Amino acid sequence: MTRFTVNDRPVQFEMDPRTPLLWALRDAANLTGTKYGCGVGDCHACTVMVDGAALRSCLITLAECEGRFVVTVEGLSRDRSHPVQQAMVAEQAVQCGFCTPGIVMSAAALLARNANPSEAEVKAAIPNLCRCGVQPRLVRAIQRAAAVARREEKIDAAPVPGGSGRIPAMVPDTKGQTP
């Protein structure tokens, strides 16, 4: 039995200790924000934070997680209020969303260790593959999130492409919730 902490909750998995963390998170813990992309660590869609470091969950086994602290995109913030999540929306750096959780986790790990990353540092820290082509907006989004985290900027809205109006940067899903 493997024991570690996921999103601030102690967990234990009665699975083969050689099982990739990705499958334990998705299949046993029902944390499906961590995406399966390639299974060999090239795409980074399955990135989570383990003890604060961005790691590809398809490459780390349950045995390697013993006693460690894992954070998935679900654990980053319950209401999607983390500065990286907000900035990704505000800078329109989200398209289909498949690679987004891995990008968000890579960016959150970067900002946890570097509060003011340069463009080169952002590009080096975000190796995630995105077929939708959001990479040009990622640097701007991550640097904006860094500024928000340092309290130099507020994220409240993003420009509407081709229009003069503004849209909210993040609208929490409140369906089915009681006040």
From TrEMBL:
Gene3D superfamilies: 3.10.20.30, [2Fe-2S]-binding domain (1.10.150.120). Residues 157-179 are annotated as: Disordered. GO terms for molecular function: 2 iron, 2 sulfur cluster binding; metal ion binding; oxidoreductase activity. Keywords: 2Fe-2S, Iron, Iron-sulfur, Metal-binding. Residues 1-76 form the 2Fe-2S ferredoxin-type domain. Coiled coil: none annotated. It comes from the Bacteria. InterPro entries: 2Fe-2S-bd (IPR002888), 2Fe-2S-bd_dom_sf (IPR036884), 2Fe-2S_ferredoxin-like_sf (IPR036010), 2Fe-2S_ferredoxin-type (IPR001041), Beta-grasp_dom_sf (IPR012675), Diverse_Oxidoreductases (IPR051452). This is Isoquinoline 1-oxidoreductase. It comes from Novosphingobium resinovorum. The lineage of its organism: Bacteria, Pseudomonadati, Pseudomonadota, Alphaproteobacteria, Sphingomonadales.
